[in-house]
Amino acid sequence: MSTTDRQLRVGMVGYAFMGAAHSQAWRTVNRVYDLPARARMALICGRDAGRVADAADRLGWEAHTTDWRGLVARDDIDVVDICTPGDSHAEIALAALAAGKHVLCEKPLANTVAEARAMAAAAATAQAAGVRSMCGFNYRRVPAVTLMRQLVADGRLGVIRHVRATYLQDWIVDPQFPLVWRLQRERAGSGALGDIGAHIIDLTQFVTGQQISGVSALTETFVRERPLPAGSSGLAATVDGAVPMDGHGSVDGHGSVDGHGPADGRRPATGLVTVDDAAVFVARLDGGAVATYEASRFATGRKNALRVEINGSLGSVVFDLERLNELEFYDATRPAAEQGFSRILVTEAEHPYMSAWWPPGHIIGYEHSFTHQMRDFIEAVATGADPTPSFADALQVQLVLDAVTRSADRGSSWTEVEPALATVAA
Amino acid sequence: MSTTDRQLRVGMVGYAFMGAAHSQAWRTVNRVYDLPARARMALICGRDAGRVADAADRLGWEAHTTDWRGLVARDDIDVVDICTPGDSHAEIALAALAAGKHVLCEKPLANTVAEARAMAAAAATAQAAGVRSMCGFNYRRVPAVTLMRQLVADGRLGVIRHVRATYLQDWIVDPQFPLVWRLQRERAGSGALGDIGAHIIDLTQFVTGQQISGVSALTETFVRERPLPAGSSGLAATVDGAVPMDGHGSVDGHGSVDGHGPADGRRPATGLVTVDDAAVFVARLDGGAVATYEASRFATGRKNALRVEINGSLGSVVFDLERLNELEFYDATRPAAEQGFSRILVTEAEHPYMSAWWPPGHIIGYEHSFTHQMRDFIEAVATGADPTPSFADALQVQLVLDAVTRSADRGSSWTEVEPALATVAA
Amino acid sequence: MSTTDRQLRVGMVGYAFMGAAHSQAWRTVNRVYDLPARARMALICGRDAGRVADAADRLGWEAHTTDWRGLVARDDIDVVDICTPGDSHAEIALAALAAGKHVLCEKPLANTVAEARAMAAAAATAQAAGVRSMCGFNYRRVPAVTLMRQLVADGRLGVIRHVRATYLQDWIVDPQFPLVWRLQRERAGSGALGDIGAHIIDLTQFVTGQQISGVSALTETFVRERPLPAGSSGLAATVDGAVPMDGHGSVDGHGSVDGHGPADGRRPATGLVTVDDAAVFVARLDGGAVATYEASRFATGRKNALRVEINGSLGSVVFDLERLNELEFYDATRPAAEQGFSRILVTEAEHPYMSAWWPPGHIIGYEHSFTHQMRDFIEAVATGADPTPSFADALQVQLVLDAVTRSADRGSSWTEVEPALATVAA
Amino acid sequence: MSTTDRQLRVGMVGYAFMGAAHSQAWRTVNRVYDLPARARMALICGRDAGRVADAADRLGWEAHTTDWRGLVARDDIDVVDICTPGDSHAEIALAALAAGKHVLCEKPLANTVAEARAMAAAAATAQAAGVRSMCGFNYRRVPAVTLMRQLVADGRLGVIRHVRATYLQDWIVDPQFPLVWRLQRERAGSGALGDIGAHIIDLTQFVTGQQISGVSALTETFVRERPLPAGSSGLAATVDGAVPMDGHGSVDGHGSVDGHGPADGRRPATGLVTVDDAAVFVARLDGGAVATYEASRFATGRKNALRVEINGSLGSVVFDLERLNELEFYDATRPAAEQGFSRILVTEAEHPYMSAWWPPGHIIGYEHSFTHQMRDFIEAVATGADPTPSFADALQVQLVLDAVTRSADRGSSWTEVEPALATVAA
């Protein structure tokens, strides 16, 4: 433990799946890493007073509130950590930045490009005043992903030719799975596309150092009508993301329901699914690579299958989030008879983030990516550096999501990704 | 061995990579399977007299000729097996069908839709006279692929939601790899698309029982100029596909060159690559599935990576040609705690084609798919049934290839696949 | 969070690799699970005052001490958690039990059978007075391992025929790796055998429900002399296990050194390795199974490769600790054409321990096995149940280790495992 | 094809599983490789006149006979290929060598050490007269295995520390599987040990260049009584190995039965299993390595799972016969952050035997190992070199089998492997 007494007092908004993951990370980060400041879990905010009190107790927050505006305004809060659904990101982030708080905002940055542009602009303004902001694309901090980035940056893959990225889940294959907030456009912005497609867009751009310049896309909603969640009087009841703390709670931690429908045999009321179940697109990256992307919640048997393969003129890498401690690396500069995909177990002290954890071969899990994210965020804030990915980086992802949506809406026609700079500069 | 004395006298045109593979299959098929007729390797044809004589000797053909028209005309030939590059398929096949020969034609059926339509029409006409025809999409006869088809046909996957198919190779990543015939549009028709993309189009349509109805595509030629093959006075010298018999001969068995360039230090003459290095597309299938396809010769480290995953409402299957004895099957109707992708080693007597081979766990190789193809072809011809895939099936694949090309040429715009029936019926 | 106010005040002795792992678990367990008592990290003990103070600060303990006897004697400690090297387990555990403290003791239970017998006897005595004890074979609580046990217990494997278990590491392949305490018999008891071999003995006995009845063994010390650790004035300095908190610190978290030798070019002093580098043995289990076991620190490329395969008359299971979220299960009662090893991703709510963590497919890591262990320990203590594995269970493992050592010492001759009951009953 | 007219006229004795595999290889070898002589499939011999006639027809032999002594005596036979069960190897081989025929004998060389010693002595005598002999450990010619040997021989693994080898099958797990000849000591010599254990003994000795010097072993017969094969009037009827040509025929190609028992409901007559179902042993190799070996026919789900891992001071290799086109290689001299097990797809022209087959990534199967074996045998005979493994090499394997049996018979006591030289020199 460092001897620092410097504290970063965190106020977190939201306490569902992401709130639990962030809490685990805030609780752990200073226990594992020597850092120039200590995170203090000062205040947690949610809409339901009873639930947020429970969450504070369980997750280890010192205090709780139902008033996020009050949280943002408090003098004794240094960092605002936004873990709510996407429809409230912009409002909270803009208020927090205006109040001079450092902001960590979950992905996707916003539900619309307009919101994202506003947030990026506000972040740029605040940055000039020493206020830091970051978007929570946590998978950049999976050690194997960071290692991929290093290999590409070091030229080990040569010229990048191909990117193929899928993020596959299967939690709504059952047509009786209820209409949770993640299936409602007004809450979630989009479906698989923004929820998990955003991750592979960010991850591949991060790793390759290239940006998607244009896409041709297809989206599909296989099941267009679903039962309403039981016990919900509309979706308002779930506004704070009232998923039970355990990620495996009802509906697989992906949404907010109390049950699967009325037990009295009446046919449950149904509603329309207004987001995509799956999105696929081909793309060009600005460095010359050709890419395919797929995000789906209908890939039976695939639970959290974020898989990325990148082929370059000198080598290739393959990553699978379900085996996140491993990286496959093909080095085409090796002797011909010895070339092969090497399964690197990314648990060595030489690997990113790993020297602080366990001995080689002792694997880490999903939640560690958040701890690594908090580590870098704390270090950046404490040393006056800008953490990445910035809101501008996240805006660019939003612009890709937007291009995908526009292409799909216009019969898969080729659609250029709008430049991020235009409005930011405006 | 059956006691039959019935013979099918085969005349094969072409003796390069495909010719060697077909020869191995003709030589083996009656040694392994009990069939109502025996294949007799009667005559082999190639343009270069010396080379075709050598090929006949090595591959085990009774006689050889340089005159394919003569071969087609002979009374003592029952079957014409076409293993030449795609630009000569139509002419030979039409002549053979007209002469009343049963025809087995390598894929892709032709280089153009017009040729393919003519061939399908001729096959339909000949079929009425008891003449059989088949296109050599040999991967349908990989036992694991046939098993996939059975699982889908039996309803084990439920409603098909997703197809993702890639066929990745890396044999031209080196910009100094020469301009072999497979990189010339006038010989090969297209590049990765027709050579290997055709395989995954056929395979996924076969397995799902659905046809691709529309696509949005992107193609790329990463290296646009390459050295001319040394020793070639133009490509005429390689017209018969004069690849050394060993598939690993110069240029990895994929083309026809004697070397990589002049040894005297002069800069070799170069020529333009006129086909695609890679083709990617998203697609819809007529049964409602959403799909991604990718064919590339620039996927460093991927040698023959035909990989297909199909997700249905009740289960999923995964196949990888580099591990062609295995099939992964996910059965979502199993108890939740026991669900997983099962690695089925497709070497049991209960599996398609396998009861004739070795004990369980003793794997087979690439070439066996041809033996299985010859088995089914012989059986169909001998019993008066129509083998599959028919020329009409292969025409449909050609129409998909055409739609991909048109979409790519028109800025990835959505492009419907033309119906096959229209012209066939005409 | 439960609303309980009941606390279990934990005093932990040792703060190296295991101390860090246990701390992470104590810190996390009540944040994830609803339990009838809360662990309070009350007091940490180590020999070096400065280091233990640092450890307390970093790991989150309320207080620290260098006096383990004092810790054991305090009225405000309910649980003694022993994380020291094996040579001090017996003394501390006996004192703690005598003082009426619940005891959690790291594995192996002791360095000698005599010590282990004394500990098991003391635990039995204490148990009558409501004092609980448990040995820390944490891998029993890896969800995939617990699931294996369930499958066997449910009869899904039928009659167990084969056990093959390896635990392979490679951290001392380099002959210049220093002579840390784990390579000294007087501190560690044995080498790979007791350190990692103990794990696979316990794990396979737990999963099969059978006990090893006899063995024929071979041990080897490939490198018999190694440099002494620099900066150590003997090994006393490392007695409390003063490994830096980060498991990856010097010597891979496996021992206690400050460096690899003198930097001034002098040839470092060396000492004799007095434990096994590797131990292999064949065994019979009392239910009729035939087994092979191997523990090695010389398996280049294997970092933490605990792998177990169990074959029964109806099925088989395979587990690999480097992919601890997965279990392979072969169900021979399935239709022949569909049998295969199913890769179960053990991250579903239906899987042991997992409903409290993340959504399906979001994997957990090594450290979670300790959290699960603490969960079960707390629950047992709070509800007045006996946790497992008991000291008697751990004594039985010690007896197997002893049989292995005796067999190896007597030229691999067949050696029966002594019964545990004899002395326990005494 | 070479222009050679030199022929090697082969007479093969036996036509069951091994006979079919050898026939496929003899038929193929000159079609694929340029060799200084051509194999001519002159004569096949079996005990049952009708069956051997069928086999000749199906497998492609020019003539057939029921008189192996006549075959050995004929002037127009150059090579005798022995594919019978082990109890007749010695008699046939000794006669053939005495008659000056080159001999290829299937493994294991014999059923007893005495026979094997006599055969090795005869081979040594014959060798002086230019007569060649070879034992058919075909797995040495799996390209990945040959590559392993090259890596070890080139020093890429450094000092070999560990060998772990298993050969697992499951074809007799069912207690109702009948008592085929392979389960009878007088025919087969031993059970899993000699049948499949012999393979891993030879393979690991070949790859490491070390010999097993001593063992401590355990064998087990889990099912001691089995139904007699239906339709067999004793085992005489199966003496020539009358397995149907298709390896998957009754009883999985592993034995010789016409069915599984009487269909009329009577309880079938049973007999005693007189061989081991499984054999496990620990061993030392003469170069210092420590090893574990396991051969079993009771490993449910393992079909032909010959798996070998070898750890050296500089690297490791892993091989799995069910994925025989792959080799995993760990190179510990690579940078720490990039080390991993590389999955080499052993299908490149640079790999042993592969330049003659298909392009990279087009895999080969089990049977190809026999074609490679015939290639090397023909080349050796034609050029006057001694093929390997020699009868002396195979005798050494027999001595290891014998040591295993003796150890198991004497309560797993440590048993030195007898030197081969003693008698050979006599």
TrEMBL record, chains A, B, C, D:
The keyword Oxidoreductase applies. InterPro entries: Gfo/Idh/MocA-like_OxRdtase_N, Gfo/Idh/MocA_oxidrdct_glycsds, GFO_IDH_MocA-like_dom, NAD(P)-bd_dom_sf. Residues 147-317 form the GFO/IDH/MocA-like oxidoreductase domain. GO terms for molecular function: nucleotide binding; oxidoreductase activity. Keywords: Oxidoreductase. Residues 8-127 form the Gfo/Idh/MocA-like oxidoreductase N-terminal domain. The keyword Protein biosynthesis does not apply. This is Predicted dehydrogenase. It comes from Micromonospora nigra.
